[in-house]
Amino acid sequence: EAQVTQNPRYLITVTGKKLTVTCSQNMNHEYMSWYRQDPGLGLRQIYYSMNVEVTDKGDVPEGYKVSRKEKRNFPLILESPSPNQTSLYFCASSLNRANEKLFFGSGTQLSVL
Amino acid sequence: KQEVTQIPAALSVPEGENLVLNCSFTDSAIYNLQWFRQDPGKGLTSLLLIQSSQREQTSGRLNASLDKSSGRSTLYIAASQPGDSATYLCAVKTQENNNDMRFGAGTRLTVKP
Fold it and tell me: Model confidence over B97-109: pLDDT tens digits?
């Protein structure tokens, strides 16, 4: 089944404790992206990647890191999480720049205490 | 900077009614517009993608229209069903930065049996 898989679904952590949210797609998509969703604000892009070893900042990249060493994986790293990073996070992918239909993962609800 | 607005934030209708969801955007120079459905606790599912050169797209009971000059898109749902209850989001990809997709905050639709 074609899908975007995120883990974990729920995560509670404390300020300053490094964490990684994994994202994997099995559709051989070139483009991958991370979003956060906050009430009343819609989805905002954190980082995106056009292909392996190619990443760039989105709207709200501060406090986040990403890497794209393999085509299928695009982990989101919070080196020192803070309470304002409490949010619902989504990973998404699309075939390439020309094919814009986005496929989303099921989301990761992160709480930073 | 592109801003996307969806009004109303919530809508409740009886089963069988035809309905229209609205999406407006401030910059008419868009690359494409996409409508998504989001169910509670789940990721987003792409419903319809309209390229900037198109006026509308149809899928089953759904029809999305695009009027770039007025900065508006509508999602028409015919013969609504309780299973249509979800949050509907529109997203606009701007021409200035083809990697930047701007999301509205969504309209939460409830279809009552």
Answer: 566 788 999 999 9
Q: What angle do CA A66, A70, A71 make, to 5 degrees?
A: 100
d(C-alpha A35, C-alpha A44), whole Å: 5
Token pair recorded at residue A8: 């974990």
Looking at the predicted structure, is the pLDDT value of residue A70 above 90? yes
* DSSP conformation letters of A66-106: E--SSSSB--EEESS--GGG-EEEEEEEES-SS----EE--
- What are the residues facing A10 on neighbouring strands? A109
Judge whether B9 and B107 are in contact, CB under 8 Å: yes
Q: CA A35 to CA B43: how far, in whole Å?
A: 11
Do A31 and A90 contact (CB within 8 A), yes or no?
no
What are the chain B neighbours of A42 within 8 Å (beta carbons)? 4, 89, 102-106
Using the Cβ of A50 and the Cβ atoms of chain B, whether some distance falls under 8 Å is answered with yes
- A15-33 pLDDT, tens digit per residue, is 999 999 999 999 999 999 9
